[in-house]
Amino acid sequence: MLLRFLELHSDDQVVRKLKSALYPQALSDKLDTTTQTIAGLTSQLESKECRITVLEDQVELLQRIVANEAKAYTNEPDIICGVVWRARVAQDEH
Fold first, then answer.
1. Diameter over CA atoms, the chain
2. pTM for this prediction
3. Is the keyword Coiled coil in the record (predicted)?
4. For residues 1 and 22, is the Cβ–Cβ distance under 8 A?
5. 3-state secondary structure the chain
6. Considering just the CA atoms, what is the radius of gyration of the chain in Å?
7. Are residues 54 and 48 in contact, defined by beta-carbon separation less than 8 angstroms?
8. Where along the chain do its domains lie?
């Protein structure tokens, strides 16, 4: 409110002196607030980056597990076919 009053009465010499005295403090306060906001956002970003790294590691581990399971699954038909083939050979021999 005071700053708005000063803006409306900026022609007055006393008001100009008050403005010059007050604005640096107001700018300093804004700078402090902005700095604190940036620090908070940086902290949040670092926290999220850590969580993303953990999630990426978990995804990589799951991909390896799925790849191993898929490899084991694709080998199963060969084993089954081999058993069936051996059974047929054994049956033909009798």
1. 119
2. 0.40
3. yes
4. no
5. CHHHHHHHCCCCHHHHHHHHHHHHHHHHHHHHHHHHHHHHHHHHHHHHHHHHHHHHHHHHHHHHHHHHHHHHHHHHHHHHHHHHHHHHHHHHHC
6. 37
7. no
8. 2-93
Structure tokens of 14?
């006393």
Hey, what are 89's tokens? 């050979």
Cα 77–Cα 78–Cα 79 angle in degrees, nearest 5: 90
**Could you identify the residue written with the tokens 């049956």?**
91
d(CA 70, CA 53): 25
Interatomic CA distance for residues 49 and 82, integer angstroms:
49
